[in-house]
Task: inverse folding
């Protein structure tokens, strides 16, 4: 099952008080769906306008939907540090599409969530999944499931009355701190024999397909940020895996998909995933050799831990070896970026904050050109370097500019004007850059100077 991001709307994360919207698909309908020039998007803007806050919004929703322990792990203090003080709550909306292979067409969906804080802890105030019933993907949507303040309002309207009442009872005490998209797979696994026929035999059910598509979409979303004040908890996705495998007959390899924690010193894989993981390591070696030719190999030191293998990467040089933990920051960053880019190249949706801080300009530009021409998924990143701007200046709506007022300007081709010439001169709306070199005299010069 293939999925794609169409649009993201968010408000309430750090400096983002009001709604910010970003479009990732330039066509108005899903007929003859192709990403074409929509593989890569880049967000620019002055320091402190909220670029990283948008990435954190995506990180938050990925964790909430995929990690049943995430909200419970948030303390009141960590929540208040991250949420915009004036707004007081966090809101996010994702428009996405999923490929119905049997019907040979793409279907549209909309997922929204509001996270708020009561006297003691954060909680899910509202959560809703809808499916597109109009032609244009920004048009009319019909509710599939809805949860408000821990009370399940609607769920699988078509034929799921028994399932609705059972799931309502199952989720009533926990749906304030766990997403319905997280709770349902565990509910389904526990009641597999009772409800599997609903999903398998009623495969044409539009509501059931919406649930599967939403869970699959967030599984296909990976976000790389460096949130020092966020809890990093390895998600327990066994129930989600079992659910998706039962419904879609697909296998899901954590080695290829779970790159949210790629900054750890080791990887955990199952025995079944070992051959795919080792193949991925070979490609990582080839990637790293482009940047550092004296890397001869990457050896894996394996430790069996129950049903998992703990894999530690050892970098082999001509006369010595270096454990990943003690490798240079540059090689570590390149290893992280490879995992993310590999995921996007194969069809995933990847967000990277400050991509240009991890890869130098010339290489960055060529990687962007590769992803735009050959990538099967979507890559979205923030940057300050102008190199990606050069590669994408002629693409449709590939460049976003976030202004000091949180307003987003999307670049559209305009005659002979080029964004990489206009942007440094302050000629993009919201990014004035009205500064000269001598303006720093008052910052760094003493009276004696």
Result:
């Amino acid at each position: 099952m293939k999925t794609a991001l169409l649009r993201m709307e968010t408000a309430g994360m750090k400096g983002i008080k009001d709604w910010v919207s970003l479009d990732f698909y330039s066509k108005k309908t899903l007929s003859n769906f192709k990403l074409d020039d929509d593989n890569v998007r880049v967000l620019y803007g002055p320091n402190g306008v909220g670029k990283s806050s948008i990435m954190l919004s995506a990180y938050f929703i990925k964790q909430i939907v995929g990690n049943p322990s995430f909200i419970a792990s948030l303390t009141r203090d960590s929540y208040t540090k991250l949420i915009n003080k004036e707004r007081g709550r966090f809101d996010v909306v994702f428009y996405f599409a999923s490929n119905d292979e049997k019907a040979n067409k793409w279907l549209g969906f909309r997922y929204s969530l509001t996270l708020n804080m009561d006297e003691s802890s954060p909680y899910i105030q509202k959560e809703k999944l809808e499916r597109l019933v109009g032609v244009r993907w920004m048009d009319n949507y019909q509710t599939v499931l809805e949860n408000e303040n821990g009370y399940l309002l609607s769920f699988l309207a078509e034929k799921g009355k028994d399932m609705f009442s059972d799931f309502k009872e199952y989720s009533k005490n926990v749906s304030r701190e766990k997403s319905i998209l997280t709770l349902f797979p565990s509910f389904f696994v526990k009641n597999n024999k009772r409800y599997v026929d609903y999903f398998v035999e009623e495969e044409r059910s539009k509501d059931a397909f919406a649930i599967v598509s939403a869970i699959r979409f967030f599984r296909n979303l990976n976000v790389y940020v460096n949130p020092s004040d966020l809890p990093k908890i390895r998600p327990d996705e066994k129930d989600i895996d079992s659910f998706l495998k039962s419904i879609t007959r697909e296998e899901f390899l954590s080695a290829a998909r779970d790159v949210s924690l790629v900054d750890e010193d080791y990887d955990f894989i199952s025995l079944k995933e070992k051959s795919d993981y080792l193949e991925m390591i070979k490609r990582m070696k080839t990637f790293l050799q482009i940047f550092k030719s004296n890397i001869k190999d990457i050896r894996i030191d394996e430790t069996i831990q129950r049903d998992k293998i703990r894999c530690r990467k050892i970098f082999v040089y001509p006369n010595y070896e270096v454990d990943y933990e003690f490798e240079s920051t540059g090689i570590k960053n390149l290893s992280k970026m490879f995992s993310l880019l590999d995921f996007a190249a194969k069809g995933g949706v990847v967000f990277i904050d400050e991509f240009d801080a991890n890869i130098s300009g010339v290489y960055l530009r060529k990687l962007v050109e590769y992803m735009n021409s050959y990538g099967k998924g979507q890559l979205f990143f923030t940057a300050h370097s102008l190199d990606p701007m050069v590669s994408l200046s002629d693409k449709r709506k590939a460049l976003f500019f976030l202004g000091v007022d949180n307003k987003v300007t999307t670049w559209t081709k305009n005659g002979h004007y080029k964004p990489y010439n206009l942007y440094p001169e302050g000629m993009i709306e919201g990014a004035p850059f009205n500064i000269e070199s001598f303006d720093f005299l008052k910052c760094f010069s003493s009276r004696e100077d």
